[in-house]
Amino acid sequence: MTGTAPGRDPRLGAIHDATRRICAPGGPFEVRTEEVLGERVQVFTARPRHLRELLESASVFGDAECYVFSDGRRVTFSELTGRVASVMDLMSVDYGIGPGDRVAVAAANCPEWIMAFWAATALGAVVVAMNGWWTASEMHSAVELTEPDLVLVDDRRAERLGAVARPTARLGSDWFGEDPGRPLPEAIEVAEDDPALLIFTSGTTGRPKAAVLSHRGVIGYLMLQKFMGARSALLAGPSSGLVGAPVRLAPYPLFHVSGLSMMVGSVMNGSKTVWPLGRFDPARVVALTISEGVNAWGGGSAHVARLLDAPGLEDLPAGQLVSVTVGGSATSPAIIRRVAERFPHLSSTMTTGYGSTETGGLATWAPNWMLQAAPDCVGPVLPTVEVRVTGDAGGVLPDGVEGNVEIRSPYTMLEYCGQPEATAEAVRPGRWVRSGDFGRMEDGLLFIASRRRDLIIRGGENVYPFEIEYRICEHPGVEEAAVFGVDDATFGQVVKAVVVTRPGAVLSPAEVRSFCAENLAYYKVPEEVEVTTQPLPRNASGKVMKHVLAGTAASGFTDDEG
């Protein structure tokens, strides 16, 4: 941690005051205590109870655009329910889908994917969001694990998947909804804690697991995002210039929690989202940004880095973008620096949120000034969420002591589908969910040290890759970096860094080591340094696949295919 401790910064008091104001009785985000799945937890008083209720509210936004796709198709809020009603009829009549059934979707981002999601959840069915980048073997494993009652595939995934022992349908144009004026069928009773979605975890090592999320969990994630927007507006004051919901870029895959949150959040917030389809093309996305008036960029760190180097970026009107956010992976100092260089008016706006699919998507949030003071700080805990740090034996640790980060909220996953042992390991008594991260609490703020599996033990000393990666990324010639442990006969493990240089930069391994040694203890300085111009291999959520870099996986980066 560098500079003034963020927990003692007077700006933190303003954040707490704003939270109390809007979460107080009668406030727009009033909080109260209720029993959820046998535990007394805090909830937002005013909230949609299930996704069907949220869908029904879309018409209040009238003929404004909800979803815009780069293939030219557009969906307004007023016609959304009619299109979904048409797909509900197709899904229920032709395929017999009803409450509790599972509908798997294996496809690239497309309008049909979105309509199928809304139709299935409005029928009380459960969506299985399959990774569109998977190989045939991975897809078959997911089908065997989740046993869907219907598998929806696009042409490319159908060819890859081949035959499966489950009902299957192609996502043709009829799945876009042929009657925008059709009324929704009679409502089906759905409870808040009924399953709504099976979403697969990142799987940076081993086979992904399918986390079961409830209607309450999906909606709660969006409620927390909406709360953060309201609190930020309150902190900014009336002169901030922010009016109405921003037009958001939506490059995330729909099988990832960030993509799903944009899809559902569009309806909750009345905001237009713009979806670039097919392979991610930075120049095309910049052109789409200009033509559709996008003023909020979001994406994984790789998306944002490529956009900052995109041809045509000089044609983007100054000031059009009001925010740039990174989701799915940490916001590195290099990305923060590059955004500030390219868009000076956004130099103090980049923030970070912390959470995971299993822990409800969001648990904490840190503004830019916290990241500047301490890059490992992920901020104060959000309302309706609890965070604690425990030892391996289970006891809660005091402030400043590192241990296992555990999270409890109404939004955490119900279980891992078909994996009771993995569920028991992750979901602790009292419905505390282990995040898999090491960290500590200080002054009400959470600091993340590392993923537990990434911890390097060098001669008995714990070394956290996060700290070293952030130091390396402070170098102006570095685009990104990954740090991991490699076996060593003397120390057990030593530190290795893979460093990706910025275009035109020249950097030697010795320079990297020297730069690290200026701020890090000797045992944290990488013994091995590999300098490259090739991007780091990442999974669909944007996380670096360190097992690929370390040579412990057979395959590497899979590009964002259409």
Describe the structure.
With 562 residues, this protein is of the alpha/beta class. Among the domains are: 76-213, Rossmann fold (3-Layer(aba) Sandwich), CATH 3.40.50; 456-549, ANL, C-terminal domain (GMP Synthetase, Chain A, domain 3). It is 30% helix and 24% strand. The chain is built from 16 helices and 28 strands. The strands form eight sheets. Strands 8-7-5-6-9-10-20 form a seven-stranded mixed beta sheet, with helices on both faces. Strands 17, 18, 19, 21, 22 and 23 form a six-stranded antiparallel beta sheet that branches. Strand 21 and strand 22 (432-442) form a beta hairpin. It is globular and about 65 Å long. Residues 553-560 have low confidence and may be disordered.
